[in-house]
Structures are given as structure tokens and as C-alpha cells.
Amino acid sequence: MPAILEVRNMVKTYVTGDTYTTALKGVSLTVEQGEFLAIMGPSGSGKSTLMHLLGLLDTPTAGQYLIKGVDVSSLDESELAEARAREIGFVFQSFNLLSRATVMRNVMLPLVYARTPDRLRHDKALAALEAAGLSEDLHYKNSNQLSGGQMQRVAIARALVNSPALILADEPTGNLDTVTGDFILATFEKLRDEGRTIVLITHEHEVAAHADRTIHIRDGLVTDEEGGGVQ
């Protein structure tokens, strides 16, 4: 079975007028099925650029990116959009929920975009909310009635609802207090134990310690790698 994702010598250069800025300078990494990987780096290190590339939100200047053995550079725009919707679930620091929509509506939204039949949407959303650990009494509240930790669980459920190959989490505890953040990280560990594959971007050692493996990025290069500290 191929790795969930494989990056080979990925380069990303931005051009502004006559100025060339290389954010990634030949990054390589592999993530296996059921692995929980943390990517750490200071501001300006290239970790956010890498996150956008892994999430198919941008394209590399050079190098290869394979998802389940498929080189995504071979896909056209419509195929990239379909792969992004099918293979990748996103969890952001700022939650990115529809504030006046119910929890259930927020979680079902990716299913609408994926043209999932109406009769299946509720059951899939319910299963995702259960996996994310959000209590049933909150499912029909509007998301702006929830606490930060509850909103992040909704965001995790939304990321899970299409059963993606990969969950990408960008600073998912950044807007949460320490206790709530630990609950969210425990949710990611539970999902990993169930066979989900997670890549988490962070600048905090305490957060990265929950992952199976951590890679460090600085100045657009992978500098070192270490195992996680919490099991």
C-alpha cells in the first residue's frame, strides 16, 4: 500500500515583480496510514506554505507531491478540487464555521459540495460528530452559541465527514485555553488510534509532543526529526 502522502524535493518560490522569495527549498517527507505527524517551525519557516501545498490550496514550483501514490501535478483544476474535497479534511485555528448555521448544517456542508445523497447526509454527519466527541444536545444549536472547544470539535467533525485520507490541522489549539486544547489533542490521538492520518502544524513543543513524530522546518528546509512524547 502506498503512503498516504509523499513529498519529494518540494520547492515553492513566490515572485513579486523582480523579487523571488523561496519559501520551501527542497522539502521531502512521507506520512503513512494512521500516523500522527506534527510539523514545527517559527514564523517565516515555511510551515504554512507547506500546509497550503499539502492541502492542495497551492501548487509547488518544483518537486513531487503524491497522495496515495497519485502525483497531484498530473491533475487539472477540477480534479484538484475533487481530490481536495475527497482526500483532505481541514481543521483551522479560527474554526471557519458558519456562525448562524446549526452544528449539523456546518458538518453536512462538505457532503452537499460532494453531492452526497440527502438521505445519507444526516447519518454521516452524526457519525462524524460522535467521532469528534461533541455531545448530542449541541447538534442543533447554532455554532455561535458554542464555546471555543466545542466549535473546534465541530470543525473536526466537518473534517471527518467525507472520510478523507488525511486530516490537516493548522494550529488547531491556538485559540483555546490549555485545558480545552488538551481535550482537542486527545481527540486527535483517539482518531489516530482509530486509523486516521493526521498532520498538524504548530509552533508549540507541548502540542507537538502529542504526535507520533515531529519534523522541524526552518528557512524552508527540514532540519531534524523526533518522536512524540505523549502516548
Can I get a quick summary?
The chain is α/β, with parallel strands linked by helices.
Topology of this structure?
Layout: E1 5-16, E2 19-31, E3 36-40, H1 47-54, E4 62-67, E5 70-71, H2 77-87, E6 88-92, H3 103-113, H4 118-132, H5 148-160, E7 166-170, H6 178-193, E8 198-202, H7 205-208, E9 213-218, E10 221-227
Helix pairs in contact: 3-4, 3-5, 4-5, 5-6
Structure description:
It is a single chain. The chain has 231 residues and is of the alpha/beta class. The longest helix is centred in the C-terminal third of the chain and has 16 residues, at 178-193. It contains seven helices and ten strands. Strands 6-7-8-3-9-10 form a six-stranded mixed beta sheet. It has one domain (33-56, 88-227): P-loop containing nucleotide triphosphate hydrolases (Rossmann fold).
Comma- or semicolon-separated keywords:
single chain, 231 residues, 10 strands, Rossmann fold, 29% strand, alpha/beta, six-stranded mixed β-sheet
Total number of helices: 7
What global shape is seen? globular
CATH topology: Rossmann fold
Tell me the helix content. 25-40%
The span between the termini is: 26 Å
Sheet with most strands: strand arrangement:
6-7-8-3-9-10
Q: Could you spell the SSE succession in H and E letters?
A: EEEHEEHEHHHEHEHEE
Number of strands: 10
CATH superfamily: P-loop containing nucleotide triphosphate hydrolases
Largest sheet: 6 strands, mixed
Radius of gyration: 17 Å
* Average pLDDT level: 92
CATH class: Alpha Beta
- Which architecture per CATH? 3-Layer(aba) Sandwich
Strand content: 25-35%
